[in-house]
Amino acid sequence: TRAPCSEIILRQEVLKDGFHRDLLIKVKFGESIEDLQTCRLLIKQDIPAGLFVDPYELASLRERNITEAVMVSENFDIEAPNYLSKESEVLIHARQDSQCDDCFQAFLPVHYRYHRPHSHDGETSIVVNHPDLLMFCDQEFPILKCWAHSKVAAPCALENEDICQWNKMKYKSVYKNVTLQVPVGLTIHTSLVCSVTLFVTILCSTLILVAIFKYGHFSL
């Protein structure tokens, strides 16, 4: 009789401070991964409207072999504020962790979008949901029957458009969904901010014009 199936453990962490963060996803298998050497692990992560992933940054990271991730969503505007944006989707190829024999990890840079100012609270929350964990193996082995939940169509590899049937894996998450606190402006400061901005703009424009007429050389 085979022992009860071990669990897959997933851990989501957000690194760095400020408006530019790194989402780190670690996956630990409860079994030896000797059978998994022929398998690929793909993470499908939904990005909430309050965050964005820069596809040009992802392309640069792929070229430097830092991380392998691609945007799935089309017509994606990285400049749009939160209230004009919608959720997006990213596929990330997880790599084996050199410090853990039965672990994989994936890394994704994410950035805050601008949010509407609030009337009282100077912060708003963004919830990053748990990802889908997909696995594709060249051969079947018993433990897959424990972990596999259903079949999902996804690209066979990030660099081509061929579609394969991946196993959607069941896992246990160490934490609840990741929640990020984003600083936002206050509406009571609108008049002050507009006044100071207008004053500084007029002052700088005047100084530039004075410098042009004083030191500039004009010829008719």
UniProtKB/TrEMBL annotation:
Transmembrane segment boundaries: 186-213
Recorded metabolic or biological pathway in which this protein acts: Glycolipid biosynthesis; glycosylphosphatidylinositol-anchor biosynthesis
One annotated Gene Ontology cellular component of this protein: endoplasmic reticulum membrane
Alphabetized SMART domains for the sequence: PIG-X
Primary site of residence: endoplasmic reticulum
InterPro entries reported for this sequence: PIG-X/PBN1 (IPR013233), PIGX (IPR040039)
Key words, A-Z: Endoplasmic reticulum, Glycoprotein, GPI-anchor biosynthesis, Membrane, Transmembrane, Transmembrane helix
Subcellular location(s) of the protein: Endoplasmic reticulum membrane
UniProt entry tagged with the keyword Membrane: yes
GO BP term (any one): GPI anchor biosynthetic process
Membrane topology category: Single-pass membrane protein
Sequence similarity: Belongs to the PIGX family.
Function: Stabilizing subunit of the glycosylphosphatidylinositol-mannosyltransferase I complex which catalyzes the transfer of the first mannose, via an alpha-1,4 bond from a dolichol-phosphate-mannose (Dol-P-Man) to the glucosaminyl acyl phosphatidylinositol (GlcN-(acyl)PI) intermediate to generate alpha-D-Man-(1->4)-alpha-D-GlcN-(1->6)-(1-radyl,2-acyl-sn-glycero-3-phospho)-2-acyl-inositol and participates in the sixth step of the glycosylphosphatidylinositol-anchor biosynthesis. Probably acts by stabilizing the mannosyltransferase PIGM.
Annotated PANTHER family: PHOSPHATIDYLINOSITOL-GLYCAN BIOSYNTHESIS CLASS X PROTEIN
Protein name in UniProt: Phosphatidylinositol-glycan biosynthesis class X protein
Gene name in the database record: PIGX
